[in-house]
Amino acid sequence: MKDEYIALVDGEIDGAKGGMMLSMEVKKDADPVEAMMQFVETVSKSMPVDSITVTFVKQSKKEIPDYYVHPPMAKMTAEDGSVMSPTGPVWLQLILSVEVGKEEEE
């Protein structure tokens, strides 16, 4: 069995901002925080950006009281806190957010 997370990846390069959503599965016997940190390291090394923020969320098909609104997605969020997915509305639960600043090479 596996736990499924969504990684919301936001990056900035030369003042331009962009983002993407990636699925991440963690085996039940693995430490999810360790897996998330390895994921952040892999993504930050592979993206040519000045800074990167990776926010991990879980999806719920039922409304949850402590739903998370990802700031770049605020305009796409309904009044009840849901966002539309291909299978219908889902609510996001914040698990972990990590910001990584890239150092300039000299």
Account of the protein in words:
There is one protein chain. With 106 residues, this protein is mainly beta. It has one domain (2-101). The protein has 1 helix and 5 strands.
Which term fits the overall shape?
flat
* CA gyration radius, whole angstroms: 15 Å
Strand adjacency order, main sheet? 2-1-3-5-4
Q: Multimeric state of these chains? A: single chain
Mean pLDDT: 90
Unreliable residue stretches = none
Query: Largest sheet, described in full?
Result: 5 strands, antiparallel
- Element order: H for helix, E for strand: EEHEEE
Strands, total number: 5
In short:
The chain is mainly β and 106 residues long. 14% of the residues lie in helices and 48% in strands.
Topology:
Blueprint (H helix, E strand, L loop, with lengths): L1 E12 L2 E12 L4 H15 L4 E10 L22 E3 L2 E14 L5
Observed structural traits:
106 residues; 1 helix; 5 strands; mainly beta; five-stranded antiparallel beta sheet; flat
